[in-house]
Design a protein that fits this description.
With 427 residues, the protein is mainly alpha-helical. The chain has 21 helices and no strands.
Length: 427
Amino acid sequence: MRRAGLTIAVLIGLAARGAGAQEPPPATPASPSAESAPSAAPASASAARGEAMAAYHSALAERRLGPSSPLGLDEVRAIVADGERLLGEGRGDEAIAVLVDLVESPRFRPFARDEAGRAAVFRLGDAFASAGAYEPARAYLRRLVEEPDAFRSSGPYARRAVRRLVDVAGERGDFTAGLDDVKAVPPTAPEEVRGEVAYLRGRAEEEAGRPDAALAAYAAVPPTSRFWAQATYLSGLIHVEKQRFKEGEELFCKVADPRRQKRTTPVLADERYFAVRDLARLALGRVAHEQRRHDDARYYYYLVPRDSDRLAEALYESATTRYEKKDYEGARELLDELRGLGIHHRYEDEAAVLDAYIDLALCRFDSADAKLRAFLARYEPVRDAARRLAQDDAAVRALLAASRPGQDPAAGGTRGASPDALRTIAA
């Protein structure tokens, strides 16, 4: 393991040098553009990394410190399995060291186009991505996508590399660079792969402020794609933003339809699908609410299930549409249900004020006055705590770090506010 430790240390230095390396001038004059800029860095870093690692292995060979016998296929498979085991145990740095030592070794070259070799390259790129080292991750994953005839046969690792590159683009929030990473995907690639690229192209077009081009790209995402729900939902948002409510509502319905779950769950059953489905149901409620179709809005909000992270939003927004229809008792029942959840949520303050407004509408003036006074007594300390926290960057960072899903914002050691105030601010 000592040699593996040296390898990862060398790799970290190479990644830093590769990121800052000067690129060679282009063969033909070209104007700089947002589309062309992102692709050079990974390629430059990859070249620098490969050359330096080759020099490292050559130096080991000259000093007779490295292995001299050829690698065997079984040995390659065993090393990949060892890397996978380390990743499964959460020992990402060690896995990266083991896999880099394999992939960048001159002895690996005969296996680079073998399935075992492709598995090693993919696992290495995936490990870098999981560690947040996106530039080397992109370089290794692109190597699989850019292989000649990568998708001619089943191409499992090329397909997986495309998926991971799309995920990396989302994690980095740079869809234009991500689209450049998959530019080698041919039009004859499997439908699943083309769907990944189409979704990524849609996000890149939206990022560039070209909504019509984004709509065309999203339309090319097939229903069997893991991104079909996202693409359809985002298309609906584009139509709504352009005041094309009917078109937007039709697209939201495709995602939100309760009957669709029985037909598509075997293909699309991941957490993203269900999260987007609930967003689509909220969107339908909001469109109906905007058009004062209050009964339709109530139905759409009702579709958001009890176990959804969006349930509090659905209950509050449904209460507001009942209030606007002058169904004050219906609005009160929804607010009572919201209160019964016993959680902090983003509409907590608005719900308290709406509760008092319902009393005013029902001429229960003493009750409304008492509720508004109680709201001010609770709200002002939270407001003051939020203002104090805003002046302390370290406190804000601590609160954000403690506000991840499944964590208690009050358990992060943030000072300057009560535990309940911290939970309210984080919500």
